[in-house]
Write a structure and sequence with these properties.
There is one protein chain. The chain is mainly beta. The protein has one domain: Lipocalin (Beta Barrel). The chain contains one helix and eight strands. An eight-stranded antiparallel beta barrel has the order 1-2-3-4-5-6-7-8. The longest helix has 20 residues. 20% of the residues are buried.
């Protein structure tokens, strides 16, 4: 009986030893792909009660994002030109669009600033979405107080 007991204990120890020798270390989790916003982005927006298209041409350097903003009517008429600056933190990017004198062809002396917090969504076609607000203007800009905008990456 004592021999059987010793044999059982030895068997259990052998199983534990085999299990302990298994070196299946879990793989290190992979980091998500870094977000790269460099490129062209476009979306539809309501401006002055009509449909318009906003296009961004962005360059990203680290977390800093800069670029040109163009707002046009479907006919191609330019409504607004501006410069975008933003800082990407994870998937959130507060932005400012500065509209210089001459940036609104219909009102060349007008200047202003539009701000938003944009949120990155890594869909099959990545998007940025948020609510635009005019934060400063020397003349009326025909953009509603909280104008929703979703821009999608175009091209590669």
């Amino acid at each position: 009986m004592r021999t059987q007991r010793i044999a059982r204990i030895a068997g259990v120890l052998a199983l534990l030893t085999v299990g302990a020798c298994n070196n299946d270390t879990p793989a290190t989790p992979t980091q998500p792909d870094a977000i790269n916003l460099t490129g062209r982005w476009r979306g539809d927006i309501i401006y002055s009660g009509s449909g318009a298209t906003m296009q961004w041409t962005l360059t990203q350097n680290g977390s800093a994002v800069t670029g040109d903003v163009l707002l046009t009517l479907p006919s191609g008429s330019v409504l607004l030109n501006g410069k975008l600056t933003g800082t990407l933190t994870q998937t959130t990017m507060p932005i400012t669009i500065a509209v210089p004198a001459g940036g609104i062809p219909a009102r060349p002396s007008c200047t202003g600033t539009i701000a938003a917090t944009m949120y990155y969504n890594p869909l099959a076609v990545p998007t940025l979405n948020g609510l635009l607000s005019v934060t400063q203007s020397t003349c009326p800009i025909d953009l509603a107080a909280q104008t929703g905008l979703t821009v999608a990456r175009i091209g590669s």
